[in-house]
Amino acid sequence: MNHIIFLGDSYTWGEGLELFIEKDKWIKQRKKISNYDDLIKVKDEESETFREQNRFASIVAKHFEMVEVVNRKNGGSLSDNFKLLEHFEKKTGMSSVNAIIVQLSHFYRTPIHLTSNCKCTFCKTLPDYPISSIIHDIVENNSNDFNKNMILNSFKKTEIDVEFMDWFWKWVNWIERFCYDLLEFKLKKYEDMGIPVLFIDSWDVEDSYVHTRKYIVDRIIPLIGDDGKLYKKWVDFEKSFDGTFCINDYFKNTNNHHPSLRTHQYIAKSIIKKLEEIL
Ligand SMILES: [Zn+2]
């Protein structure tokens, strides 16, 4: 059996897709707030199967008569993705892998030492402690918002001195560069084995800029918008849908902003188009 590996976060995992099941249970659920924590409480075998079969990864793999490899766990940091890759390599030797698709997320989710296996005192005390938590702790803000402006504003409210702030941002920028250098280094190893690597832009506007990196630019998948045009930037792809892009656009009470069933089909179509050019 041939495989395609999909690395990403909740977008790749297919969060919220079960809300499109046309059955009473899910039609009722659409009227409530339905984020991950809410959905996990009401999931069942049917909803798990529906989510897994309708996410873009499965549509792509099915098209090529291959099997998709997706992290079982929702969410996703770079360290989770490395773990999945390395685990699969150990198990199979990668000879069955035809492509690696990386849906870029947000580097703040990555643990400080870039792996959840780090044995240092800090990581042993706080395993899987992401960079975002360090930022939150420093600015004493418990929000899950990763926006840099929000963090800067929180800094202004606290009594952290300017010198520290300056040092802190240098550290964040350094670690961000290091994260993507490491990602590039790890993925090149698989390219050397003859496995193509492709990227999907990050949904996060601020992280989207990493695609000025030549390695990523050269491997980005143009996404087919609702207007039929091709978009390399996620934000432009999203705009082309005019209010039918995310789950919340269909079911206003869910507050779930993950891609809709239809958007998953568009992402799949875009990946298939790109893979057909190179495979
Ligand atoms: Zn560590």
Task: Explain what you see.
With 279 residues, the protein is an alpha/beta fold. The chain has a single domain, classed as Rossmann fold. Helices cover 49% and strands 9% of the residues. The protein has 14 helices and 6 strands. It has helices spanning 10-13, 24-29, 36-42, 45-54, 56-63, 78-92, 121-125, 131-139, 148-157, 162-192, 214-217, 234-239, 247-250, 261-278, and strands spanning 3-7, 67-70, 97-103, 197-200, 223-224, 230-231. The protein has a 4-stranded parallel sheet with strand order 2-1-3-4, with helices on both faces. Strand 5 and strand 6 form a beta hairpin. Helix 5 (56-63) runs parallel beside helix 14. The radius of gyration is 19 Å and the shape is globular. The mean pLDDT is 89. Zinc ion (ZN) is lined by residues 113, 118, 120, 122-123.
